């Protein structure tokens, strides 16, 4: 192996993979604890928060790896590795906070309850990115998530009712069909009985003669 091999990037990537495995393992434990069998992804709030914390990390994982290796190979491996470690730590804090409460998934990254600014500046000072985090916004987002969850449950119940209604209509149609067939069969039996009576009367008259 050459001395210029991206060992730092590989080490950070391996560490991130271990983190993803740990989060998946924690979801499995939560399934067992709350008796939520696969493939269901809904259950008690504690399980749903644990599941969403893992899924959120999974959704961002490809972007993290692409950014890590692109910056490490074409710019600075050390800088990319350090930034990757910071990201992994921040992700773990985020996941731990999310498991406890939806309001803590971002608040866990703050050391204060007040609003804070996070500023990231480039070395030449030309570009500055400011992210404004507000506690009120987090509460509103938590309420929005709760409303979304309730709406999804209502939609699921609506679909269930529609399925039940369709099944009831199908059963009614089948009953009408069976009733019609029974009427035809009853009429056929009556005709046979009438014909049998006629034949019996004819035979009796023939014997008398």
Q: Can you give me a brief rundown of this structure?
A:
The protein is mostly helical.
Question: Any descriptors?
Answer:
Four Helix Bundle (Hemerythrin (Met), subunit A), golgi apparatus, mainly alpha, 5_LipOase_AP, single chain, 2 domains, SCOC, two-stranded antiparallel sheet, Membr-assoc_MAPEG, cytoplasm
Structure description:
The protein is mainly alpha-helical and 209 residues long. The chain folds into 2 domains: 1-102, Up-down Bundle (Four Helix Bundle (Hemerythrin (Met), subunit A)), CATH 1.20.120.550; 138-196. It contains 5 helices and 2 strands. Strands 1-2 form a two-stranded antiparallel ribbon. β1 (116-121) and β2 form a beta hairpin. The longest helix has 74 residues, at 135-208. The N and C termini lie far apart (120 Å). Residues 110-135 have low confidence and may be disordered. One of its GO terms (molecular function) is enzyme activator activity. This is Short coiled-coil protein. It is found in: Cytoplasm, Cytosol; Endoplasmic reticulum membrane; Golgi apparatus membrane; Golgi apparatus, trans-Golgi network. Positive regulator of amino acid starvation-induced autophagy. It is a multi-pass membrane protein; Peripheral membrane protein.
Cα-to-Cα separation, first versus last residue: 120 Å
Global outline:
elongated
The CATH superfamily name of the largest domain is Membrane associated eicosanoid/glutathione metabolism-like domain
Known CATH architecture of the largest domain: Up-down Bundle
Oligomer: single chain
Main sheet attributes: strand count, strand direction, barrel closure:
2 strands, antiparallel
State the CATH topology of the largest domain. Answer: Four Helix Bundle (Hemerythrin (Met), subunit A)
GO molecular function: enzyme activator activity
Family: Belongs to the SCOC family.
Keywords: Coiled coil, Cytoplasm, Endoplasmic reticulum, Golgi apparatus, Leukotriene biosynthesis, Membrane, Transmembrane, Transmembrane helix
GO biological process, one term: leukotriene biosynthetic process
